[in-house]
Amino acid sequence: MPGQQFQYDDSGNTFFYFLTSFVGLILIPATYYLWPRDQNAEQLRLKSLRRVHGRCLWYRLRLLKSQKSIVPRLKKAAFLFGWLIFLLLAYKVSKLDREYQEYNPYEVLNLDPGSSLSEIKKQYRVLSLKFHPDRGGDEATFMRIAKAYAALTNEQSRKNWEMYGNPDGPSATSFGIALPAWIVDQKNSMLVLLVYGLAFMVILPVVVGMWWYRSIRYSGDQILINTTQLFMHFMYKTPNMNMKRLGMVLTAAFEFDPRSNKEATIRPADNIKVPLLICKLGNINVKKKEPPFCYPYSLKARVLVLSHLARMDVSEELKEDQRFVVRKSPALLQEMINVGCQLTMMANSRGGFHAPRLVTIENCMKLTQMIVQGLQESKSPLLQLPYFEEEHLRYCISKKYKVRSLQDLARLKDSDRRSMLHFMGEKYDEVMAVLGSFPHITMDTKLQVLDDEDSSNITAGSIVTVTVTLTRKRMVEVFEKEQEALLCPGEETAPAEEVQGDASKAKAKQVWQNKNKGTKKTAKSKKKKLTKKKTTPALAKTKQANGSVAGSEAPSAAKEEEEEEVSDKGSESDEGETSKYSPRERDEDSDKQSDTEVDEMAGDDEEEWKALQQSIQRRERALLETKSKVTHTAYSLYYPEEKQEWWWLYIADRRDQTLVSMPYHVCTLKDTEEVELKFPAPSKTGNYQYSVILRSDSYLGLDQIKPLKLEVHEAKAMLDNHPQWDIPDTEEEDEEQEDSDGIEESEDGDDEDDD
Q1: pLDDT number for residue 625
Q2: What is the model's pLDDT at position 608?
Q3: pLDDT recorded at residue 556
Q4: CB of 241 within 8 A of CB of 249?
Q5: Buried residues in 306-337 as b, exposed as e (16+ CB within 10 A)
Q6: Whole-number Å distance between alpha carbons of 670 and 645
Q7: Phi-psi region of 251 (alpha: psi -120 to 50; beta: other; left: phi over 0)
Q8: What keywords appear on the UniProt entry (predicted)?
Q9: Pick from 671, 681, 675: which is nearest to 467 by CA?
């Protein structure tokens, strides 16, 4: 039984293969995922945003960071050093000679396989004279030649070589290990054990433990589990939460506690700086003894948030802490909205406690807008624009202009707007550029009951689907052409003749009004006329069919009157044509028309089926696709981080202050987005008035509310016995009689066979 033999790499050559593979497996994916972004591309992107976002805090911080940061350079240097090592290892491996070669005695003697014994002896004599040590040859080469000669001339050696590939017979199985021999050397055993113990008993358990400890403390949205439980406790305790109470609950989050989050800090200067801010802010419930509102970290976070909303200047020591608190707040408010939705669902399914009121969830959304824009609740949305101050608002809200919102400002004529904003001077174009970048959302709704025969019929308890189509445009696209030219002076202007020709159209175009009212009315009237024209021949044909088919149901009185009117009109128009044909020809024409009608109805059904299939495929594709959450950069003067425009979309009953459908966070709206909101219809029949609400998480004053009327009918009763499966008694008796006759015939046949 041959043994086993383990051979380590004494020369260290094969170890380079292992080392090169190991370095490549780490370096290639790390370079792909961790290589710093191109700084030139980032600089170009910031340059393109400069005209609109140049005064924003996040823009200035990002620009300063990109100029001073050396982290990308260090990363690039580390990756280049790693690639240099990898290339050196690859070069070393390419220069290594392959030591292992298959033993072949014919190759050693420079003979062809199958040579005769005389040829072998002759070749051995020639080589021995050349390589014999006594004649100054190489001893190792001569030994190989002698071994090959013995293997080919000795019968037993030749048989061993043919069977085992070795003239000496079967040898021990050899396993090569691509590690240098010094690793298993007894002198280095303690060092190797120390390294293994440090790697697998200290470093690896610590890394896994840190990952596990962090994963159990945070939710999927990277919010502390303790913070989620805190929000749930206070939203359950106070279902109707006003803005002041909501701010206290927000700033009590454990993300702002240094004991739970290392990013949060408590500085010695806080004992001096924070009381000064409290004196400036006024009453912020400092004396409230309810924990955790009375804790120092919660009080500090509350002061920093309120000073941010008041746009107050804070000291340099508190600026970094304020940016940290403000940066964390939108994600925490989103978690509060999620908690409110969960409590609402639990209250609807189980009952037993009061769900958070609609005003609480909407206050969370409103507070997010306020924090992103750095504005208090009572302030004007116009203060979101640059260079607008409190003293400038008196020009806007005067009786002459009555501008109280961003939409009102966009609706003004350019001449009136320039005169109103005369205090802006040269800054007017920049203000208009910022206003033009604000979003303008068009919201279209479609109410239906999917997977039902009549999708427009809403019955009690059915699942209602509201398909909302959101279309985003910039406000500059809604402006008049004259305003658009002023906002984009770098673009080429149209010729004077075209401008004069379009002047009349531009005057008629009004911003923030339904531009297609007239066209919609005319379209509706055209549709009515077309439907009348289409239904008139159909009604006449159904009347003829009802008159010719026996046992058909008589139409209702209203339908009869319509048919009479249609037939009168049709007889007046077609009197001259019908007189040309005989009654037989008219019957043939009517048959042809009925056939074409059936074909048209079948075609309509096929089109509806295709449309349904396409809608299902579109929904499945939307579920499979993962869209990026990068939409459009929101304009925010005082928010310390680049913020994307996101929206909340939900259906609510504003009279009862309850949620009808859970808020859907729209994070992928670039141009158009289709969202499906589903909710169960009320269990009682009647008319219901709901509202489809769209709220921004970045801007104040851009929310939309659209009424949704719901007419709930009584559900159809389920049939116990479907008529298709009802078998009359006479048919059952006939079937039994046939079965009995068949059995008798088979018995008679068997008797005949026996005879």
Answers
A1: 53
A2: 57
A3: 40
A4: yes
A5: bbbbeeeebeeebeebbbbbbbbbbebbbbbb
A6: 9
A7: alpha
A8: Chaperone, Coiled coil, Endoplasmic reticulum, Membrane, Phosphoprotein, Protein transport, Repeat, Transmembrane, Transmembrane helix, Transport
A9: 675
Q: Determine how β-strand 686-696 pairs with β-strand 704-713.
A: antiparallel
* Segment holding 43, helix H or strand E: helix 39-53
Rounded Cα distance, 368 and 253, in Å: 15
Considering the domain architecture, whether residues 438 and 454 belong to the same structural domain is answered as no
Specify the higher pLDDT residue, 501 or 40: 40
CB 630 within 8 A of CB 668: no
In terms of phi and psi (left: phi > 0; alpha: psi -120 to 50; beta: otherwise), the region of 402 is: left
CA dist., res. 327 & res. 626, Å (int)? 26
pTM for this model (two decimals): 0.66
Q: How far apart are CA 78 and CA 73, in angstroms?
A: 9
48 and 134 part of one domain: no
Residue 294 domain-assigned (yes or no): yes
Residue 430 CA from chain centroid, whole number:
33
In a domain, 361, yes or no: yes
Residue 252 falls in which region: left (phi positive, over 0), alpha (psi -120 to 50) or beta: alpha
- Quickly list H helices, 350-474: 358-373, 393-396, 406-411, 414-420, 428-437
- What residues does 7 pair with on adjacent strands? 176
Distance, C-alpha 454 to centroid of its chain: 32
Query: Domain range spanning residue 290?
Result: 225-442
Separation CA 729–CA 391 (nearest Å): 92
* Rounded Cα gap, residues 422 and 400, in angstroms: 15
Q: In terms of DSSP H, where are the helices of 182-256? A: 189-198, 204-217, 225-237, 243-251
Please name the residues in contact with 572: beta carbons below 8 A apart, sequence gap of 6 or more.
Answer: none
Question: Cβ atoms within 10 A of the Cβ of 162, count?
Answer: 10
- Give pLDDT, residue 323: 95
DSSP letter for 464, please.
E
* Domain boundary, last residue among 69, 94, 119: 94
Question: How many whole angstroms separate alpha carbon 649 and alpha carbon 365?
Answer: 11
Q: Is 676:466 a contact under the CB 8 Å cutoff?
A: yes
Q: Quick one: pLDDT at residue 116? A: 82
Are both 259 and 352 inside the same structural domain?
Answer: yes
CB 310 within 8 Å of CB 276: no
pLDDT of amino acid 56? 94
- 3-state SS, residue 24: helix
DSSP codes of every residue in 554-596: PPPHHHHHHHHHHHHHHHHHHHHHHTTS-HHHHHHHHHHHHHH
Poorest-confidence range of 385-399, 517-531, 691-705?
Answer: 517-531
SS3 658: strand
For residue 233, give both structure tokens: 């406790």
In total, the chain counts a number of residues equal to 755
Q: Looking at the 3D structure of the chain, how many domains does it have?
A: 5
244 occurs within a structural domain: yes
Q: Which residue has the tokens 């071994």?
A: 147
Same domain, 232 and 379: yes
Q: Two tokens at 291?
A: 């924990």
CATH number at residue 339: 1.10.3380.10
80 lies in the same domain as 110:
no
CB 511 within 8 A of CB 476: no
Residue 505 domain-assigned?
no
Angle in degrees, CA 239, 242, 248, rounded to 5: 95
The encoded tokens of residue 640 equal 């310390």
User: Beta strand 704-713 with 458-459: parallel, antiparallel or unpaired?
Assistant: parallel
SS (H, E, C) 329-341: HHHHHHHHHHHHH
What number is the average pLDDT over the span 654-679?
92
Cβ atoms of residues 160 and 167 within 8 Å: yes
pLDDT at 173 (0 to 100): 53
| Those residues with Cβ within 8 angstroms of residue 449's Cβ, 6 or more apart along the chain or in another chain | 455, 456, 457, 458, 459, 462, 463, 464, 465
Do 161 and 83 sit in the same domain of this protein? no
Question: Which two tokens mark 592?
Answer: 């042809």
Mean pLDDT computed over 265-286 = 86
- Number of alpha helices (DSSP H) and beta strands (DSSP E) in the chain: 28, 11
SS3 710: strand
Same domain, 330 and 427: yes
